[in-house]
Each structure stands twice: as C-alpha cells, then as structure tokens.
Write a structure and sequence with these properties.
- About 25% of the residues lie in helices and about 25% in strands.
- It is of the alpha+beta class and about 160 residues long.
- The structure holds zinc ion (ZN).
- The site of zinc ion has 8 residues, from strand 7 and helix 4.
Length: about 160
C-alpha cells in the first residue's frame, strides 16, 4: 500500500466516534513501516491489549477499523487467520470484533474475525515473518496477496454494512 500519514489514518476510521478517533494510538514509527510489503496497516495499541486497528486501501480511499481483541484462552490450540490463512499455535491468532459502522454499530451490532494477533498478515504471506507453519499450497505470493485482499475487503464490507 501507499505510505500514509497519521492525519490520513485518523480520518479513515469508519466505526469510531470523533473522540475515539482523536485519542486512538497511531503507530509512532509510520516512516519505518515496510509499506511496499503491506496489503494493509495493522497494529495493536501498546497501552491497551484489547485494542487493535487496521487501515486498508479501498476504491473509495482509506478505510480504518477499530477492533476489540477477545481475551486469550491460553490453550495451545492451532488457529487459522481468516484473512491470510496462516496457521498459528496458541496466541498467534485472536478473535477480533469490529463494531459496525453507522446506526448498526450504535445499536450494538458487530462483526468478528480470527486474525493474526500481530496483524502482520502481509509479512507472513511474503515469508518475511515466520509463523512456523503454513498451509502446504502451490499459490504464488501475488495469488496469496490477492486472496488476502479479497478476504479483507469482504470483512470491511460487513463492517460497513
Ligand atoms: Zn493473518
């Protein structure tokens, strides 16, 4: 994706109040992020373990989504990320829930997905971060990227309603 700024990131959130958008923790190391290898920007709030965020490009511009991370169960189960299909054991995959945008969200509706706990799907896909084990499949990296982008777009569509 194209490098983005803190201002663009804050302006992109679709499921936050204005106050939440102003306060949320945007990464301080934006200049050092490996943008060319990112299909989306995802991060955890270093000060609040239950908060995660992702920002992705779409036809209509950047779309940012605030996520709630479900507490870990501590069991060493194997789980698969629903975006990049990387399999992790234990805490490597988390259930993340997004309040839906607009009125649906104000009425308490949300959408959940299992996502790599560090939101580094793009790096797992490209073999730049090691998950220990990947699906044994013959897809090329561009094909995996395309699939992940499609999975993410489907998730964002659900959040946007
Ligand atoms: Zn993933």
């Amino acid at each position: 994706m194209m490098p983005t700024t803190e201002t663009e990131i804050r302006a992109s959130f679709v499921n936050c109040t204005k106050g939440e958008t102003k306060r949320l923790a945007v990464p301080r190391d934006l200049a050092d992020r490996p943008w060319a290898d990112l299909d989306f920007l995802g991060w955890r709030d270093p000060a609040a373990d239950e908060r995660a965020y992702l920002v992705a490009e779409s036809d209509t511009g950047l779309v940012g989504v605030a996520l709630r991370v479900a507490p870990q169960t501590g069991r060493a189960r194997r789980n698969m990320c629903s975006l990049c299909l990387t399999t992790h054991t234990g805490d490597g995959v988390s259930l993340m829930t997004a309040r839906k945008a607009g009125r649906d969200g104000r009425q308490g509706n949300s959408v959940g997905a299992y996502i790599c706990a560090d939101l580094a799907c793009s790096l797992y896909l490209r073999g730049k971060r090691d998950a220990g084990r990947r699906l044994d499949e013959t897809l090329t990296v561009p094909q995996k990227v395309e699939r992940t982008t499609a999975n993410l777009a489907a998730f964002l569509r659900k959040v946007l309603g």
